[in-house]
Amino acid sequence: MKLVLFDIDGTILNTGASGVASAKEAIKKLYGKLPVFDVMAITGKSDKHNFGYMYKAAFGKKPTAKQLEAVKKEYLKLLPAEVALQVKNKVYKPLSGLEKLLKELQKHSDVKLALATGNIKEAADIKLAPGKLGKYFQTGGFGWEAEERTELLKVAVKDCSKFFKIKFAPEDVYIVGDTHTDILAAKANGYHSAVVTEAGLGDKERILRAAAELETKDFTDVLLWLVWLGLAQDPKGVEKGSYIMPASAIEHVFFSRTGIDEQSLKMFKIKKYDDLGSGTL
Known about the structure:
Blueprint: E1 2-6, E2 13-14, H1 18-31, H2 47-59, H3 65-88, E3 93-94, H4 98-106, E4 111-116, H5 121-128, E5 140-141, H6 149-164, E6 173-177, H7 180-188, E7 192-196, H8 204-210, E8 214-216, H9 222-228, H10 250-258, H11 262-267
Parallel strand pairs: 1-4, 1-6, 4-5, 6-7, 7-8
Antiparallel strand pairs: 2-3
């Protein structure tokens, strides 16, 4: 049995700046100061992490647990209007080919679909509602259960195992995201990784270096996704530059695309791919 976990923002949906705008406004409304920060610093992170980060950006210190809960509550009050605004402005939209792929995957009895998102559960529901996408995802892992993405994925798999009453082995878990954080967290847990780039929220350089098994613009090529998931065979064989089969070693893929191998990383005293800053070796 395969478990396919999808992120939300930038992966299955473009929700504009609804989440960031709501969180910033929540902090300003509660505590009187609008946080100023680089949005890339919170891209791919959980709501729990991001609310704390924004609060610290505004006041120079971490929020208390009570303050964090207050921000969460206010955020959920403001988010529906922000999402509605993105819908009205025609910014809100599912990524190309998404529903076609989801409908195809639902036909496979050996595939379970779920979420692994940095969004709070209630926020995920709010964001999925206009696109009527909630019907595809019955469960998952959400952004108040863990701050770090690596732990969030573990929680998602654990919750899915309970919900579906199936024990998923790491090699049967497939992570679909849009940032290098998604890729690295998947690798850290021994899961498969794929990244979509249509929304453009992720750092291109870091995505390249993180070397997902599958990197593509969107979901329009259903066969491509089915081959990656091991649900179909590619009659043309593996095409370099389009996707890398899961059977290939991650280090080999990384070297073939960047020219940097595991030994080189050690030479530069770099322990993780994530330590490579964007635009640097």
